[in-house]
């Protein structure tokens, strides 16, 4: 099967607004050129974390840990969640404004065997249908924190390999503060989306 053509997104392609970017990234691809080969996956689920958002790491201001969130949009913010899993976010506002989009689930489009080697025994939707699962599958970790995802390099955002389907909206998953806000976006009907079924009907 011929690998899909994946065009690197430029910064000017990215909306300069967190909610707009969270919607825009549904269907776009994450591409990572690893030593063993290329892996690529369509983004099928995101969550927006806004500047005034009590659930956001940026809520209390700029720190060494969250600094990529305050940079130019299109940079990676990678952090360790509960000491267990690395989570991957994309900065989403103008410099000095802390906000980001969490990538929650992806659908493999290239290098699926390489992803399975990184997550032995996992296949199908379970391979990358969660924010900690997808970083393992795609080989994303702390070395990528602050990386410019629109610059030349081995980890980047790409235009959608195919157009996204209908986009659903719900509240976010696994948070307690500002939990009522409808800031989770997902491709409706895609089996690679995470979360309970009741949250994927909207």
Going by CATH, what is the homologous superfamily?
A: Methylpurine-DNA glycosylase (MPG)
Task: Tell me the total number of β-strands.
Answer: 8
What can be said about the biggest beta sheet?
Answer: 8 strands, antiparallel
Work out the radius of gyration: 15 Å
Assembly state here?
A: single chain
Strand content: 25-35%
Mean pLDDT across all residues, rounded? 94
User: In the CATH hierarchy, what is the architecture at level 2?
Assistant: Roll
Stated plainly, the CATH topology is called 3-methyladenine DNA Glycosylase, Chain A
Question: Notable features of this structure?
Answer:
27% strand; alpha+beta; 3-methyladenine DNA Glycosylase, Chain A; 3 helices; 202 residues; 11% helix
Structural features, described:
With 202 residues, the chain is α+β, with helices and mostly antiparallel strands. It has a single domain (11-200), classed as 3-methyladenine DNA Glycosylase, Chain A (Roll), CATH 3.10.300. It contains 3 helices and 8 strands; from the N terminus they run αβββββααβββ. The protein has helices at 18-24, 112-118, 131-138; strands at residues 29-34, 37-49, 76-81, 85-91, 100-110, 155-158, 167-170, 184-187. Strands 1, 2, 3, 4, 5, 6, 7 and 8 form an 8-stranded antiparallel sheet that branches. β4 and β5 (100-110) form a beta hairpin. The longest helix has 8 residues, at 131-138. It is globular, with a radius of gyration of 15 Å.
